[in-house]
Amino acid sequence: MTLFDSSAPERRVTVEADGGSRGNPGPAGYGAVVLEPVTRAVLAEAAESLGTVTNNVAEYRGLIAGLDAALALGATHVDVRMDSKLVVEQMSGRWQIKHPDMKPLALQAKQLVREFRRVTFTWIPREINKHADRLANEAMDDAAAGRTWSRRVMAEASTPVAAPRRSPDMGPPTTTVLLRHGETRLSVEKRFSGPTAEPLSARGEAQAAAAAARLASRTVAPLEAIVCSPVARAVATAQPVAAALGLDILIEDGLRETDFGDWDGYLFAEVAAKWPAEMAAWRDDPDAAPPHGESLAATARRVRQARDRILAAHPARTVLVVSHVTPIKTLVRMALDAPLAAVHRMHLDLAAISEIAWYADGPAVMRSYNETFHLEGL
Fold first, then answer.
1. Which residues are catalytic?
2. What is the distance between the alpha carbons of residues 286 and 125, in angstroms, rounded to a whole number?
């Protein structure tokens, strides 16, 4: 049964939670923080010393506290990020819950999840979960000292920017999951690489396989279609995902990389030395193009047209878009309503995953950008 109020205005938040004990079981505590997803402004904090319990109990208590705080803020969509693999996998339904101490806590968490329109669970490394980890350690310090301690703060001064108003009958968005292609010889050397038939390197193939495993494991809003640039390195990146999910690859020419013309294959410094005036113009003017190449403005026009075709063909579905650095950053720029020059101010890693929700009445929501957790160890 769904418990959320479908008429409530949309509000998205990120919850980061952690818990631990010194001894397992031992003096334990948890910490949770609710963040505005784009600015990462702190909206709420929660922490508590728990006496003597296990790490996993403390982690679940942190999750429950974070969801409670998000609910109190009126959140409708929550992205939960934790460094507990066990909690993330169990709440995502991929691992069974066997321990008797975990079952009532997991049930309580799942009951809270049903209060929202959508909740996603993502594993993050501990070093990224610093805020919640700090709160949990403060709680553990007090538990170790035999003190009962808790913290509940709703940061009214950090109210997030209101989401764009949407008509209630517009329905769910079309979600594009954006995957940049894997490594090639030219990308390793940081050379301009346009729509040329440059194959993936061995590491690029491994990156594509890792991305496929990550995307195939989605349990919330699983991928329903794959749309890909026609360029060989993008197709080679899409193929493992297609094989894992049993989906066809739909080619969209508008997703190809910018044509860098005479600059293709050159290092940035080499271009600046050989074509100084053209390079300066290209950096300052989106309508300026490399010799025999394509301007950023021209790229943006065809990427926008490609996006419109994708949204028209896949309404309210979740679509994997496999493309290149410039088209993906262009889609991000469009979602954020940023100027053309913003593409020069973004970094996007090879085989990185980003996600945008496009609503039928125009506004878009950036859900994630440049996720590379799946590439660790490569």
1. 181, 257
2. 38
Given a cut of 60, is residue 168 above it in pLDDT?
no
Q: Measure Cα distances from 205 to 123, 140, 151, 353 in Å.
A: 23, 43, 47, 16
pLDDT at 1: 31
Q: How far apart are CA 131 and CA 114, in angstroms?
A: 26
Label residue 361 by pLDDT band (50, 70, 90): low
Token reading at 301: 């026009």
Q: Which tokens in the block code for residue 233?
A: 């390195």
pTM recorded for the entire structure: 0.58
d(CA 168, CA 161): 20
Q: d(Cα 326, Cα 341) in Å, to the nearest integer?
A: 11
pLDDT in tens, 208-266: 999 999 999 887 788 999 999 999 999 999 999 999 999 999 999 999 999 999 999 99
Q: 14, 132 in Cβ contact below 8 A?
A: no
- Compute the distance between CA of residue 37 and CA of residue 279 in angstroms, rounded to an integer: 35
> Does residue 199 have a cis bond before it (omega within 30 degrees)?
no
Whole-number pLDDT of residue 4? 42
Q: State the SS3 of the chain.
A: CCCCCCCCCCCEEEEEEEEEECCCCEEEEEEEEEECCCCCCEEEEEEEEEEEECHHHHHHHHHHHHHHHHHHCCCCEEEEEECCHHHHHHHCCCCCCCCCCHHHHHHHHHHHHCCCCEEEEEECCHHHCHHHHHHHHHHHHHHHCCCCCEEEEECHHHCCCCCCCCCHHHCCCEEEEEEECCCEHHHHCCECCCCCCCCECHHHHHHHHHHHHHHHCCCCCCCCEEEECCCHHHHHHHHHHHHHHCCCEEECHHHCCCCCHHHCCCEHHHHHHHCHHHHHHHHHCCCCCCCCCCCHHHHHHHHHHHHHHHHHHCCCCEEEEEECHHHHHHHHHHHHCCCHHHHHHCCCCCCCEEEEEECCCCCEEEEEEEECHHHCCC
- Per DSSP bridges, beta strands 77-82 and 12-21 are parallel
Does the pLDDT at position 128 exceed 50?
A: yes
